[in-house]
Structures are given as C-alpha cells and as structure tokens.
C-alpha cells in the first residue's frame, strides 16, 4: 500500500498548487472520492450544453443542443475544478487497479462470488468513502447564469452544491 501513501502526498501537493493565486474565489471543500467523481461527471460531461425543443420552419418539433453561456473566467474556473477532481478520480482508479491486482494474485481477474470478490468490494467501498480536501473554485447562480429554462438538470445541480455560494 505504498502506492496509496504516494497518492496522498501527491494530492496534497496538487491541492496546494492549484489553490494558489485565486484564493478569493476558491474554498476548501471536503469530498469523498465517490462525491468527487460524481461532481467531475456533472461538470465535465453534463455542463457543456443542454437539449431544447424548438420548431423548424414547417412547425415540426425538433431537439437541438444549446451550449451554456458561461463567460471565459467561469469556464476557466470550471476547467481548473475539473483538473482537481480528475486527480481524485485518477487516484481512485489507480487504487482500484492496485487492489484488483493484489487480491487476484496478480492476474487482474477476480471470480464472482468468492472471498476475494467480497474483500475487493469492501476495500473499494472504503476507498470510495475516503475524504479528500480540495481547493475548488466556487460559483454563484449569477456566475453560471442559471435561468428557469436553461435545461440544468437537478442531478447536475445536486452534484455541484459543494461549490455553489448561494
């Protein structure tokens, strides 16, 4: 488990470096690995654009993709948050692979319904609940230009609550 110690030290260094220079818009956020991965998915995969129903020239309904209208500084802050969250996700994935290799005797394959599989699940669950402290940019509703008809899914909003200011 020397690998896990190295990941923890690297994460501390990364958090220090990414938090410098913009302290006025960042805050220290404690997240489990599971929550950080969910937030990463929400920001990087579901905050680019949204579907909107519109009508074509013949009056037929059609779905179009509409990009969110974030300003440049908001996009940059989101990109930096993605970088910090991705570090946690990558550390979790490396730990998952290390556990898999350890419990499979190096084969990388664990048979279902075995003691090894049960141990893997227990250890992986413990890793997913491990808490990380990150310096993340925070956003207000105004920063994100939230409107009633902008298509923001409730699941996205729920995932980013830790980095919202109001």
Notes on the protein architecture:
18% of the residues are buried. The chain has six helices and four strands, in the order αβαββααβαα. The longest helix is centred in the middle third of the chain and has 32 residues, at 72-103. The strands form two sheets. A two-stranded antiparallel sheet has the order 1-4. A two-stranded antiparallel sheet has the order 2-3. The chain is extended and about 60 Å long. It has one domain. It has helices at 2-19, 33-46, 72-103, 115-128, 141-144, 154-160, and strands spanning 26-32, 49-55, 61-67, 131-137. By secondary structure, it is α+β, with helices and mostly antiparallel strands.
Task: Give the SSE map.
Blueprint: H1 2-19, E1 26-32, H2 33-46, E2 49-55, E3 61-67, H3 72-103, H4 115-128, E4 131-137, H5 141-144, H6 154-160
Antiparallel strand pairs: 1-4, 2-3
Helix pairs in contact: 1-3, 2-3, 2-6, 3-4
Structural class: alpha+beta
Mean pLDDT rating: 83
What's the number of domains? 1
Q: What is the terminal-to-terminal distance?
A: 40 Å
The number of helices is: 6
Helix content: 40-55%
Supply Rg: 20 Å
Helices and strands, in N-to-C order? Answer: HEHEEHHEHH
The spatial strand order of the largest sheet comes to 1-4
Tell me the major beta sheet: 2 strands, antiparallel
Taken as a percent bin, the fraction of beta residues is: 15-25%
Short synopsis of the structure:
With 166 residues, the chain is of the alpha+beta class.
Keywords:
166 residues; alpha+beta; two-stranded antiparallel ribbon; 6 helices; 4 strands; 54% helix
